[in-house]
Specification:
- Strands 3-1-2-4-5 form a 5-stranded mixed β-sheet.
- Helix 2 (64-75) runs antiparallel to helix 3 (83-95).
- Helix content is 23%, strand content 37%.
- It has a single domain (13-126), classed as GTP Cyclohydrolase I, domain 2 (2-Layer Sandwich), CATH 3.30.1130.
- With 127 residues, the protein is an alpha+beta fold.
Length: 127
């Protein structure tokens, strides 16, 4: 059986940071505003591979360690009335990197509801 002729299109690569566990003040009632709470983030970062990456050249790779450190500095120990605001701020921080084509951030707030494991908010941005 013959293969169809033509170029192969490479889709953007996706880097996923799973279960980044941070603590922040999230909520608008008194108890929430005075108690650090767990927030668990999942980051899905899409970027186009630079041709040099195929040759294993680190300087052209997307530095997910730097991005993760920025997210930690933005969230850890800080205050947000809304989980949606936290997620939006993280999305804006990540999409500001030139190599990033799209990002989806999901934030889980464990034990936010009595009979649920968590409540989560997700947001996607694309350039």
């Amino acid at each position: 059986m013959s293969q169809p002729s033509g170029e192969i299109t490479v889709q953007p690569a996706v880097i996923t940071v799973k279960a980044l566990r941070l603590r922040a003040y999230v909520g608008f009632n008194d108890e929430e505003q005075h108690k650090l709470q767990d927030v668990v983030l999942n980051l899905h970062i899409s970027h186009q591979l630079h041709p040099a990456v195929r040759e294993d050249q680190v300087e052209h790779a997307l530095n997910y360690k730097t991005i993760t450190k920025e997210v930690i500095a933005l969230v850890d120990g800080n205050r947000f009335l809304l989980l949606e605001k936290l997620v939006n701020d993280v999305v804006e921080s990540i999409i500001s990197h030139e190599q990033v084509k799209s990002v989806t951030v999901e934030a889980d707030k464990p034990h936010a509801l009595r009979f649920a494991d968590s409540v989560s908010v997700s947001l996607t941005a694309t350039r």
